[in-house]
Amino acid sequence: MKPFLGSAALLAICVSVTARAADMPVKAAPLPSPTYNWSGFYLGANLGGAWTNGSLNIPGNNFYGGITEFIGGVQAGYNFQVGHLLFGVEGDFDGATFGHPPLPTPTLGTVRQNWIGTIAGRAGLVQDEWLFYAKLGGGWVHSNATLSFPGVNWQGSNTSAGWLAGVGVEYGFKPNWTLKLEYDYIGLGNWTSPTVPPIQLNRDLQMVKLGANYKFERGLPDTVTPRAGHSAEPSEDEDLAKKSQNPIADLVSVPFQSNTNFNAGPFNRTQEVLNIQPVIPLRINADWNVISRTIMPVVSQPSPFFNNNTNGIGDITQQFFFTPTHPGSLIWGLGPVFTVPSATDPILGQGKVLLGPTAVFLTTPGHWVIGVLVNNQWSVGGDPLRQSVNQFLAQPFVNYNMAHGWFLTSSPVITANWLAASGQQWTVPVGGGVGRIFKLGDQPVSAYISGYYNVVRPTGTPNWQLRAELSLLFPER
């Protein structure tokens, strides 16, 4: 954690010349006040994934294993800070999106959640720009359900209330802006259908949400000391290019990466994946940063059964890299990666909560940026009827920076599905492309285009990929 401000650890008591006064105890200094002010009203937005492990208690039903869904909405609240303690109240409202079960799987019952609302008290511990909090309150969920099996054909809707408990971490990255990551559990109990026989549905809900808040009261004074490690002068093109090519650089960026994959599925259709990938450095102290990297895919996925595509949002992945601010010639970062089942349709995601380790290693000799990003994730929750997951990813990257902001790039994404049959596990692409650092008005951007051919791939998966990326860069001033 960031060390407390001030160089004095103990406050000495004035000592007189007498021996009696010299025996007086030395008292510890009070903790210095945090530099970031969390008090006041705030308003924000969130998105993420939600899932249930509940079941429809239908005799002989083996086809309903809960639901997974994409959620997105707004939140508002008020914080009252007393030193390093924070108390507050927050309410949020999220819409939920979930499509039909994967065809042609039969089912005796389906459930669709339409919206989720919560209100809760928050209590937390403040350490400058960081807030660690817990929340306790209530939640409301509106659901539709359908039952269809011999003797029962029923549809209904219901709004149920339950208790809510959650934990989260929030970071003030600008005077009026904060980012948060939160886990919530809503205990809803059972919903019993008015049928004969009555059917009980357990709908306890888990959610992981990423959010941003706007504080109406500034968290920092108008004049603050520039952070160590941040340059006060604009970067040169090559320096900015190197930072944009470094996954764990101390640079805020928002890449929009289009991956067009050709000849996918039994009908040789085109798959399109637009990854929205905000990268935000979070400062722990003068020696360590945490780099937050979120990947939200917007997908057009060919159907495995019909000659058409399904469009929507896929499963959201979150990575955190703990990295030293002064790493030397080898730059590295280690941390966790997890994926939440946020797909708006089952065909667009895996229906599982994934968790695992991730790491980045790179070096920047001369005009080069050379490194590799690796991770492995295992399924640890989600729909029990969906296939378990054990997947590996390695992305080596090589960039050569030239004059006037131009650069050559190669960053193939190598993947392995360890649970697939022999000969169907690996996807290994080769290729590369060209890009440039430039400005759109006053906004620095990085853009490139590249192509890859999958020399090793599972049957029925794409053979060619066209990748194009535009990244908005926000160098510190």
Question: How would you explain this protein's 3D organization?
Answer:
- By secondary structure, this protein is an all-beta fold.
- It has two domains: 40-215, Porin; 237-474, Porin, CATH 2.40.160.
- It contains two helices and 27 strands.
- The chain has helices at 19-22, 237-245, and strands at residues 10-11, 27-28, 40-52, 68-82, 85-97, 109-127, 130-149, 152-174, 177-187, 190-192, 200-202, 205-215, 252-264, 269-276, 279-283, 288-302, 309-313, 316-324, 331-340, 352-363, 368-382, 390-401, 406-410, 414-417, 426-440, 443-456, 464-474.
- The strands form four sheets. The chain has a 15-stranded antiparallel β-sheet that branches. Strands 3-4-5-6-7-8-9-12 form an eight-stranded antiparallel β-barrel. The chain has a two-stranded antiparallel ribbon with strand order 1-2.
- Strand 10 and strand 11 (200-202) form a beta hairpin.
- It is flat and about 75 Å long.
- It starts with 9 loop residues before the first strand and ends with a strand.
- 34% of the residues are buried.
- Residues 1-29, 100-105 and 224-235 have low confidence and may be disordered.
- Belongs to the Omp25/RopB family.
- Keywords: Cell outer membrane, Membrane, Signal.
- This is Opacity protein-like surface antigen.
- Pfam families: OMP_b-brl.
- Residues 1-21 form the signal peptide.
- Oligomer designation: single chain
* Main beta-sheet strand count, sense and barrel state: 15 strands, antiparallel
Question: Which structural class do the helices and strands define?
Answer: mainly beta
Radius of gyration: 26 Å
SSE run: EHEEEEEEEEEEEHEEEEEEEEEEEEEEE
Query: At the first level of CATH, what is the class of the largest domain?
Result: Mainly Beta
Question: How would you describe the shape?
Answer: flat
CATH homologous superfamily (4th level) name of the largest domain:
monomeric porin ompg
Q: Which runs of at least 5 residues are low in confidence (pLDDT < 50)?
A: 1-29, 100-105, 224-235
Name the beta content range.
over 45%
- The total count of helices amounts to 2
The total beta strand count reads 27
The overall average pLDDT, rounded, is 85
Helix content: under 10%
CATH topology of the largest domain: Porin
Instruction: Please give the CATH architecture of the largest domain.
Output: Beta Barrel
What is the end-to-end distance? 25 Å
Q: How many separate domains?
A: 2
